[in-house]
Amino acid sequence: APDAPRLSSFLGSWEENQYANDVFGISINIPADWTLQRSDFEAFQKMSLDATAGNDPKLRREFEAAQRRSVTVLKASILPPFTPGKPNANIIASVEDVGDLDEIRDGRDYLNQVEDSLRHTNVSFQIQGSAQETNLGQGKFHKLEYVTVVNGVRVNGLLYARVVDDVVFLITSSYFLQEHRELIEDILQESN
After folding, report:
1. Which residue, of 7, 33, 54, 149, is most buried by count of CB atoms within 10 Å of its CB?
2. pTM of the predicted model, to two decimals?
3. Side by side, which strands form the sheet with 18-21?
């Protein structure tokens, strides 16, 4: 559970397959044929922690602290997670209290910190360019692209971040196929 009860006013709401967050000016309509998870992300967080920090005690403490400051509000994928033999893609959204991190004033600052953290993980990430401003819904977000290799397979990713009142809204998506990237971008651009 997050240490920051103040996040409750930043969590947004659900109506069927549509997630809306007025604070960050975004609404995400998840296609009806996608697998959607709205809560109970504990196993996902543990898997992410294990994959990125491994057995490094310092890294684990840093990532665990970030997880305590954040709440995952959406996890959706084209196929159920770990469907064998088929490429999948996902969209994950979370909110994180960054009030104790003075150096984070906007989405670009947050993504720069994410980029720096990724350089110290047990996974090799290649960042594609620098964070660029983009509009999603009614909000100005910053976007960063990355590539990593997991078990010999290239995984592409998109990160979007916006900061309001010392809370970041982060969208993370990963995909294997260009057509999935286009689908993810269409879903996010249709945000209103």
Report:
1. 7
2. 0.83
3. 13-15, 18-21, 26-29
